[in-house]
């Protein structure tokens, strides 16, 4: 039955859509989403490949995963299923109705992600965070405040992901093309800090804690992923014989 459903689905797709769907075959998150009969989940389809690429190494390792923005609670169940037994899922939303999503291994906190005092309380309550997923209100001040308050708190080899970055282009969310103060422009500036080891102008660009704790920044359609890893000053050598 499921095979026929997929066959019908693929038959109605454009070649580009079929190629995108093929990339999610074998992706447990995409499979969960397609067969979901639990609480509602609303996701852009290309996100699943990104999630699995960066979160796969945490499966079955009891991570602490924090998601901001809960919709109808389905993604909380998806993360629990994906990461396996022992995972601790923390959900943040401003809507108190989301408290009904709480379970034995799902904790719900009600608060405003732009409220830095609230985020400080989150840090105190959860001294370890392996993954942070910002799928909250998507406004510029919310995304920036959440990053500034929680990124440094993510454990040294953890992952920070912000999705729906396209709102940085939408005026209703405080965005606009190349507009100063959007989270997209803010994220672009993080690239400079990643490269600060090579700066010849330390008064303008100096090595800072972000430089020393970030292994890579990955930009995708509507998503930015920042992977943490303790980084020391890079060095280089040469091996082998010179050719001339």
Structural write-up:
- The structure is a single chain.
- The chain has 244 residues and is an alpha/beta fold.
- Helix content is 34%, strand content 18%.
- Strands 3-2-1-4-5-7-6 form a 7-stranded mixed sheet, with helices on both faces.
- Helix 6 packs parallel to helix 7 (140-150).
- The model has no long low-confidence stretch (mean pLDDT 93).
Radius of gyration: 20 Å
Shape: globular
Mean pLDDT: 93
CATH class: Alpha Beta
Question: What are the key terms here?
Answer:
alpha/beta, Rossmann fold, 7-stranded mixed β-sheet, 18% strand
Offer a quick outline of the entry:
This protein has 244 residues and is of the alpha/beta class. The chain has helices at residues 2-11, 15-23, 28-35, 47-55, 74-83, 116-125, 140-150, 183-194, 209-213; strands at residues 64-68, 88-93, 106-110, 129-134, 154-163, 214-220, 223-228. It is built from nine helices and seven strands.
Topology, element by element:
Layout (H helix, E strand, L loop, with lengths): L1 H10 L3 H9 L4 H8 L11 H9 L8 E5 L5 H10 L4 E6 L12 E5 L5 H10 L3 E6 L5 H11 L3 E10 L19 H12 L14 H5 E7 L2 E6 L16
Parallel strand pairs: 1-2, 1-4, 2-3, 4-5
Antiparallel strand pairs: 5-7, 6-7
